[in-house]
Design goal:
The protein has 186 residues and is an alpha+beta fold. The chain contains four helices and five strands. Helix 2 runs parallel beside helix 4 and helix 3 runs antiparallel to helix 4.
Length: 186
């Protein structure tokens, strides 16, 4: 086989196409990094399932619109479909994270609420299984509370309610976010 036959198998990209591929790749990696930092705050947002669902739907609609606009330049239906689907998937992943981020960063002043302490559980993990001595260091605490007559779970690095008995009324600092979802303000 001559070397010319190998070159025929590769797609030749223009400089403009290479720049687009690099920018899209950087955008995907930036989204993953942004998401990894934001996801740890989801467990301390009250009603986070509703927030995520709402922004998934908004992301789908935005992605369909963006995909439609971007696919106008393409002639083949298969390519149009791929562009619309990829835009929709990307925005459905990104929008709940952006929605949560803006809810958390653009928020009201801190409010101290009275909640009922239900239970405190230590959680921990080890990448290498259970240690030989059987003791795992705690990573944090799942704190179960009754807030507005609803059971809720928050996740904290330290037990701010050490010394309180089950059923005790304790104070919890919260803030109302831009989209109306309360979250724990520490």
């Amino acid at each position: 086989m001559s070397s010319g036959q190998y070159n025929d198998r590769f797609i030749k990209l223009s400089n403009e196409q290479i720049v687009k591929v690099v920018l899209i790749t950087l955008l995907v990696f930036a989204t993953i990094i942004f998401a990894s930092f934001e996801l740890m705050h989801f467990s301390n947002t009250f009603g986070v399932k509703k927030l995520v669902f709402t922004f998934l739907i908004l992301g789908l609609l935005f992605g369909l619109g963006l995909g439609y606009i971007l696919s106008k330049k393409v002639k083949e239906n298969m390519e149009k479909t791929v562009i619309i689907v990829l835009c929709s998937i990307f925005t459905m992943i990104l929008m709940p994270i952006l929605g949560h981020f803006t809810n958390r960063k653009i928020a009201s002043e801190k409010v101290v609420e009275q909640v009922k302490l239900s239970q405190v559980n230590i959680y921990g993990s080890s990448r290498f299984g259970i240690p030989e001595d059987g003791e795992m260091l705690p990573e944090g605490f799942h704190i179960f509370i009754i807030r507005n007559n609803k059971p809720e779970r928050i996740r904290l690095a330290e037990n701010i309610y050490a010394g309180f008995e089950k059923g005790a009324t304790v104070e919890l600092s919260t803030r109302k976010g831009l989209w109306g979802f309360d979250f724990v303000a520490l």
